[in-house]
């Protein structure tokens, strides 16, 4: 079981930066930092980034998503898939500290568990009734 970092713990990393091109060339970080960065991808935000990036979104979250997408499989734990983080199906509880690759069970969703609610404007409702009468 993963241990939670203490409230006073610091996340640190070493970066080698090309200041001329404003690019990070190399980063060295502890497992805690890597777990934190990958935890960001388990949030529904990863799904949003995937959808929005098709329309040219830029920013650090998209860069993190793209970097993880391009990560070579040799850097992964054995029998682990990047797909769990690249295509999340559920958010991890915020009170748990996320391991590098959380277990997410892909259970089929039963539509009876959802309630669909809609609100019609009075004008829209009247138009629908008029169309039905014709």
TrEMBL record:
Pfam families: DUF674 (PF05056). InterPro entries: DUF674 (IPR007750). This is DUF674 family protein.
